[in-house]
Write the structure tokens for this entry.
Amino acid sequence: MNKTAKIEIDGKSYTFPVVEGSEGECGIDISTLRQVTGCITLDDGYANTGSCLSKVTFIDGEKGILQYRGIPIEELAQNSTFVETAFLIINGHLPSEDEMAKFSSQLTQFQNLHEDMKFHFEGFPSNAHPMAILSSMINATSCFYPQVMQPYDPETFQIMSSRLLSQVRTIAAFSYRKSHGLPIIYPKPSYKYTQNFLHMMFSDPYEDFVIKPEVWRALDLIFLLHADHEQNCSTATVRYVASSRANLFACAAAGVCALWGPLHGGANQAVIDMLEDIRQGGDDGRKFINEVKDKKSGKRLMGFGHRVYKNYDPRAKIIKKRCDQLLEVLKINDPLLDIAKRLEECALNDSYFIERKLYPNVDFYSGIIMRALGIPVEMFTVIFAIGRMPGWIANYREIAEETSQRIYRPRQIYTGLTKNPYVPMEDRVSKP
Ligand code: ACO
């Protein structure tokens, strides 16, 4: 029998259907709530709101489970690559050999930006944050490929989404070169996705950067682990913008902006800043933990806590292991890693963190890996954005293919002034 839920308002009872997902999650479908009761729901930060049905990613935050298209993240991290996983997320199945070859060759074919786009980079100040450049340049891409603004059709989407996935790393690398006053390095068709990104970041016009396998594999893993995470702030933003039928590049640019904040993708940069402050202050971490617990300090343990995970973030487990391995292979002794481990140990044994179910999230150790790879701190969130692109594209696709999809338009409970008459300028009393 189908489950239902009853809501009682002023003694009157209303029945609503309960929708069940393929992993047993249930949601009360209140689509007709306002129509039949006159009321709306109020849900601070949308913590209890399911905004869509989606087939892309499943998370069980209590158990620490993450699956892309049903495949556990641990299996993908062990066996797949970022590009294969991107295909899976966007298309819903692992690629056959032919599909993989076609997808790879499209990513290579689209890797160069339109040559005129290069001039846009010149206009940014040299200290511009690369996330600002990234969002602007992704948005600007629609000027060069206006077909993206046509109503959705699968063939154009396939080309445009491959172009976006390929060019996001070219734009990202160009923005880094620009902000460091370095000459732009063009992509090389002989390199695969992640090698090519490292090449464009670190090669010189006269000398190619030597790409060690453990280095590109570690970065590829970081991309893969960030590839999707259901309705997080940036993906929900992409869906929001897509619901107005804005084009794919505009939606992805909006996703980059949402990702930028320190409570979301900007946390990986904030973690390193925090660890560096602790190191420079000569603290072994304990003083900082006490400051965090004292809410008056306004400090948070960055890289800890998650809206969905109330258990160890499975991505953090994978990253922590790879971080140890990489630093050993590269013979790097990073004092920030020691501080991070001490903070983690303190926090995991402290009632403040235990009671609130605060565990390390994906950002806690990813910054230390990126530091070891030579990626500057201001590029950390850009790396996240490259990784998250398949998830944004897949979520855009779900919206675009759903013809009955309505524009996202929440309501509000108004708490402002009422019956406030317009006062002419000469009668207004100035406030001190
Ligand atoms: N350090 C200290 N206390 C924390 C932390 C933290 N990192 N995170 C949450 N808390 C506390 C809050 O102060 C609150 O305490 P209270 O109940 O006494 O008021 C309680 O835990 C619940 O916190 P909320 O802010 O309500 O949790 P929310 O789900 O809204 O926020 C978030 C989740 C934003 C990730 C939060 O945990 C945080 O700010 N973490 C640090 C930033 C970070 O690492 N962000 C990356 C997230 S992962 C990602 O985007 C890829």
Q: What stands out?
A: The radius of gyration is 24 Å. The pocket of acetyl coenzyme *A is lined by residues 45, 263-265, 267, 292, 300-307, 356, 358, 361-363 (CB under 6 Å). The beta strands are 4-9, 12-20, 26-28, 57-60, 65-68, 71-72. The first helix runs from residue 33 to 37.
